[in-house]
Amino acid sequence: MPRHVIRPGDTIKxxxxxxxANTNNLAIxxxxxxxxxxxxxxxxxxIPAASDGTYNFLETKNLKSSLxxxxxxxxxxxxxxxxxxxxxxxxINEIRAKLQALKQKEADSIYSEYRALKTAELYAVNNCKxxxxxxxxxxxxxxxxxxxxxxxxxxxxxxxxxxEKDFRATCLMARNWAILGYDFDDGHLHNYGYDEDAGLAVxxxxxxxxxxAEHAYFLDYGTNRTSYLDAFAKxxxxxxxxxRFTNIKI
Length: 250
Ligand SMILES: [Fe+2]
Fold this sequence. Notes:
mainly alpha; Membrane-bound Lytic Murein Transglycosylase D, Chain A; Helix Hairpins; minor pseudopilin epsh fold; 3 domains; 3-stranded antiparallel β-sheet; two-stranded antiparallel sheet; binds fe (ii) ion
C-alpha cells in the first residue's frame, strides 16, 4: 500500500486531492492516526489502492553479474533462461491489464475469460517468483551450507549428508521445481518437489530453489539432469540462502 509522510502544510484535504483518494476508505486504512484532521509532520498516511483494478506495473529484476561467469553454465544458457523469465513478467502485466478491463464480468468456474486470466495470472506469478529465487540463489561458490543454515538443516534432517541426499532425490523426482523451504506452521525445513499441476505448499518460505525444467539446462547438458544438478551445487550462493533464513520473522 502506498504511503505518504506528512510534511508541513499537508492536510487531509490536500492528500485526498493529491491521490484522488476516498475519504472514508482513507480513515479505515489509517486507524493508527488519532485524528486525520490534525496531522503532524512525520505522520505516515497509508493511501488505499484504487478500487478499479489498477495494478502496480511489475518490472523484471536484473541478473547478478556472477551468473555470467559460473563454471558449468554457458552465458547463452543463462541468457536464454533469463529471456524466459522476462516473458513471465511481461505476461503478468498483460494479464492484469486485461483483468482490469474485464471488470469481473461473467466469472464462472467451468469456463470464463475471467477464470482463464486468473488461472494464467497465478501460473505466471508463481513462475516469475520462483525464477527470481532461483537466479538469486546461484552465482555463489557452492560447497556446503554453513552457520545458522547448516545448524537448522542438521536440526531438521539429522545430518547435512541426509538433507543433501534427500534434496537431490527431490530434484530428480520433481518435474519443475525443487524447494528447500521453511514452514511457518510447524517451524521446520522441508524439501518439496513442485509440478505445475500439484501446486505450491502454503506458508512455505523458499530458501533454496532449483529450476528442473529442461530449458534450465538443455543447452549445456541436453537431457542430463544429473550433470546439471552437479553444476548447480557448485554454484549455490549460500550467503543468499542464509540471508533468506535470517530474515524470516519466526
Ligand atoms: Fe526456468
